[in-house]
Amino acid sequence: MAKHIGPKKKYLRRFGLLPGKSRQEKLRAKSEYGKRLEEKQKLKFIYGVTEKQFLRHVRNAQKSRGNYGELVLQQLEARLDNVVYRLGYAKTREQARQIVSHEHVLVDDKKVTIPSYQVSAGQKIAIKEKMFQNPLIQDAMKEKKIGDLPGWLERKESSAIIRHFPQSDDLPKDINMSLILEFYR
User: Fold this and answer.
1) What SS3 class is residue 35?
2) Does residue 96 belong to any structural domain of this protein?
3) Same domain, yes or no: 87 and 69
4) Are residues 70 and 91 in the same domain?
5) How far is residue 93's CA from residue 129's CA, in Å, rounded to a whole number?
6) Residue 23: pLDDT band by 50, 70, 90 thresholds?
7) pTM for this one?
8) 126 found inside a domain
9) Which of 49, 68, 81, 160 could be cross-linked to 115 through a Cys-Cys bond (beta carbons 3.0 to 4.6 Å apart)?
10) Which of 21-25, 79-83, 109-113, 129-133 has the weakest average pLDDT?
11) Is residue 121 part of a domain?
12) What is the rounded average pLDDT of the residues 49-72?
């Protein structure tokens, strides 16, 4: 992943993602291209993927049948680093990515160190027992209770099961996928 070296708050402000802050629009109107580009960059920033990885998800979705805007979001949600974040084992996606790459996550009792690994329905995700005692993971789990989990995930302390692939009601609603897909046409 290409690192965002600068302050994260600057990106959050740019995309209007700061909680409690209303976004002040510039006086100059954005072009259609500018709107599409900003929406794409916002999604890439949220999930922490590079342009190459994001383009791969878009191309795979375009080859598949169905609503490929929804398919892109499903693929991004099914990344291992995002699943670890959604399960509440990490406070941020960056922290989840580090937990995965430092060999603390087991998928079906096998070490997986690739944050972009695509999980599928029925797979078991577990945190190594030694790492599960880590205060960072314990703090993250206190913040995210089991009742706050998405419907497609089921967590039991240090392990979890992927019930099914994320459905349209499990996907984020604040992203305008039509603008992103128009960008790639």
Assistant:
1) helix
2) yes
3) no
4) no
5) 21
6) low
7) 0.83
8) yes
9) 81
10) 21-25
11) yes
12) 90
- CATH number reported for the structural domain that contains residue 56 in this entry: 1.10.1050.10
CB 80 within 8 A of CB 127: no
The three-class DSSP label of residue 161 is strand
How far apart, in whole angstroms, are the C-alpha atoms of residue 22 and residue 59?
34
Residue length of the chain: 185
Q: Is position 110 within any domain?
A: yes
Q: At residue 135, what is the residue type?
A: P
The string over 53-90, giving b where at least 16 C-beta atoms fall within 10 Å of a residue's C-beta and e elsewhere, is bbeebbeebeeeeeebbebbbbbbbbbbbbbbbbbbbb
Whose structure tokens read 């499903």?
Answer: 74
Counted domains in the chain: 2
In terms of domains, do 105 and 38 share one? no
Judge contact between 65 and 105, C-beta under 8 A: no
Q: DSSP letter at 79?
A: B
Quick check: 2 pLDDT over 60? no
Which pLDDT belongs to residue 1? Answer: 46
CA distances from 76 to 8, 25, 73, 130, 157 (A): 21, 29, 5, 28, 24
Query: 63-116 pLDDT, tens per residue?
Result: 888 888 889 999 999 999 999 999 999 999 999 999 999 999 999 999 999 999
